[in-house]
Specification:
It comes from Oscillatoria acuminata PCC 6304. InterPro entries: OxRdtase_Mopterin-bd_dom, OxRdtase_Mopterin-bd_sf. The protein has 197 residues and is mainly beta. The chain contains four helices and twelve strands. The strands form two sheets. Strands 1, 2, 5, 6, 9, 10 and 11 form a seven-stranded mixed beta sheet that branches. It has a five-stranded mixed beta sheet with strand order 4-3-12-7-8. The radius of gyration is 16 Å and the shape is globular. 32% of the residues are buried. The mean pLDDT is 94.
Length: 197
């Protein structure tokens, strides 16, 4: 498999490719369970918990500032893809529309299809994080998490939830799907936080 679909990173990329990773020649699709098929006109993103509850439609999200992003993408299954080009909404711009209780220290990401994953507020509220709806100039396909996914470049990709449709602000850390099934609570690639051991 190595050579056709993946290659070892060259020495000059050692500052961009975390330990234990290989570079993907394509953009692999890894999904547990069925792939939800959600049209943009049916899409909504809800926020609740320690926040004033709101529901954002697709049009609401598209009315927010849109930006282009280039970010490296690291999967816990040992592959990375560099310079992935996305279009979407900065998390920090989205957060300007919310009123969050200061007791909230964690967010549970909820998705169409029932997937969940947790992320600390400190990891969520970073300049480089964004909600993506476009990948390499094309609408984000369902296989890659469309119509909308979160992208958190500094953590392994299971924290970048596909088909995201809810953010639950909570005052204690809780475990999402993969965290309950042996994955690390945070998932930082440079520390190889893959599993909870």
């Amino acid at each position: 498999m190595l050579g056709k679909y993946f290659k070892k990173p060259s020495a000059e990329l050692s500052d961009r490719v975390p330990p234990g990773q290989h570079l993907a020649t394509g953009f692999p699709v890894l999904t547990y369970g069925d792939t939800p098929q959600i049209s943009r006109d049916r899409y909504s993103l809800k926020v609740w918990g320690l926040v004033d509850p709101q529901t954002f439609t697709w049009d609401d999200l598209m009315a927010m500032p849109q930006e282009e992003f280039t970010a490296d993408f690291h999967c816990v299954t040992h592959w990375s893809k560099l310079d992935v080009k996305w279009t979407g909404i900065k998390v920090l711009d989205f957060m300007k529309h919310l009123s969050v209780d200061e007791k909230a220290i964690c967010i549970m990401e909820h998705c169409y299809g029932g997937y969940t994953t947790n992320i600390a507020i400190a990891d969520f509220l970073r300049e480089e994080n964004f909600f993506a709806h476009t990948l390499f100039g094309e609408p984000l396909s369902p296989e890659h998490g469309g119509p909308l996914r979160l992208v958190v470049p500094h953590l392994y990709a299971w924290k970048s939830a596909k088909w995201i449709n809810g953010l639950e602000f909570i005052e204690e850390e809780a475990s999402g799907f993969w965290e309950r099934n042996g994955y690390h609570r945070r998932g930082e690639p440079w520390a190889e936080e893959r599993y909870s051991y």
